[in-house]
Amino acid sequence: MMKRRLGRSDIAVAPWCFGGNVFGWTADRDASFALLDAFVGAGFDFIDTADVYSRWVPGHVGGESETVIGDWLASRGGRDRIVLATKVGMGQPDRAGRLDRAHIESSIDGSLKRLRVDYVDLYQSHADDGDTPIEETLDAYARLVKAGKVRIIGASNFSADRLRTSLAISEARGLPRYETLQPEYNLSVRSGFEGAVQDLCVAEAVSVIPYFALASGFLTGKYRSEADFGKSTRGGNMGRHLNPRGLRILGALDAVSARRGASLAAVALAWLMAQPSVAAPIASATSLDQFRDLAAAASLDLSAGDRAELAAASAPA
Fold first, then answer.
1. 99: domain range?
2. Over the stretch 133-145, which tens digit does the pLDDT of each residue have?
3. Which regions of the chain does DSSP assign to beta strands (E)?
4. Domain CATH for 164
5. How many CB atoms are closer than 10 A to CB 208?
6. What is the average pLDDT across 186-197?
7. Is residue 252 one of the residues assigned to a domain?
8. Which of 99, 116, 291, 313 is buried most deeply by CB count within 10 Å?
9. Which residue(s) pair with 12 in the sheet?
10. Residue 291 located in a structural domain
11. Does any domain span residue 282?
């Protein structure tokens, strides 16, 4: 399987990143273990989680996903076969992100303990923190890299201006640079990333690992009317996608899917994999059937015509 380099680092990954938000939530421990076994068995290696997953579930406090992954790694071994990514800074009661030195240094130790590892390959700022100087955040990461707890760093939910400033400070002060960016990006949600952010990532060799790659399941074709919203715990969020444009997107996915003999999910992921600067879209599965649909994207070679048809149908208003 052809691997893709993360930024300017020496880390390369397979083109699909398993989203760990489902572990310990919609996928229990046994289901999570089976999915991770299948993922690695198929030649994939990139797993993304966060210290806040899955705090939104009643009774959860955050860290449940990391704990499941850690238990799986302890049971199966093979740490060196996995590129393990987690995130820090989200879930604070008073601000979007918290990236001060004290919080980063305490959070990494909690994540490493739950993951049952000595280091993470990719440690990411989960949300920007306008209250903490960028230099303080990057210096905290430099300490973690020097201590061997982190290999490279990434950002999530950053604007083009804040990412550009962070990269400039890294270069000027010899501090670790954000090698990856994790934005919301998919066929249904394009305008927030395409343009200034995408151009910056291409110019600065920042690899993109988009989250919500399937628009929380909308791009699987599962939700085609309001009557379908009750099909899953995420159905309540489908109203933002189910509109005339969304139906055009599903129509184009249906057409390409029929021509290629692939699922809508595989086609939607393959389209993302072909976009400039994208290294590995993040998508989750909660069953082995879903896993097989997503895994097929890595070997699905969409034609230029396929990609153009999908791009035209999903063009932002």
1. 4-182
2. 999 999 999 999 9
3. 4-5, 12-13, 17-19, 46-48, 83-88, 120-125, 150-156, 178-182, 207-208, 282-283
4. 3.20.20.100
5. 24
6. 97
7. no
8. 99
9. 5
10. no
11. no
Are 182 and 124 within 8 A, CB to CB?
Answer: yes
Whole-prediction pTM value? 0.95
Domain count, the chain: 1
Distance in angstroms (rounded) separating the CA atoms of residues 190 and 193? 6
Are the CB atoms for 109 and 146 separated by under 8 Å?
Answer: no
Sole residue written with tokens 């800074």: 89
Separation CA 218–CA 240 (nearest Å):
10
Residue 39 parent element (H or E): helix 29-41
In terms of Cα–Cα distance, which of 154, 173, 189, 162 is closest to 279? 154
Neighbour-count burial for 96-114, b at 16+ CB within 10 Å, e otherwise: ebbbeeebbbebbeebbeb
Could you tell me how many residues make up the chain?
317
pLDDT at residue 92, rounded to an integer: 73
Two tokens, residue 58: 């009643």
53 is catalytic: yes
29 pLDDT tier (thresholds 50, 70, 90): very high
Closest CA to 134 of 92, 163, 93, 108: 163
In a domain, 121, yes or no: yes
- 194-247: per-residue pLDDT in tens? 999 999 999 999 999 999 999 999 999 988 777 666 666 666 677 788 899 999
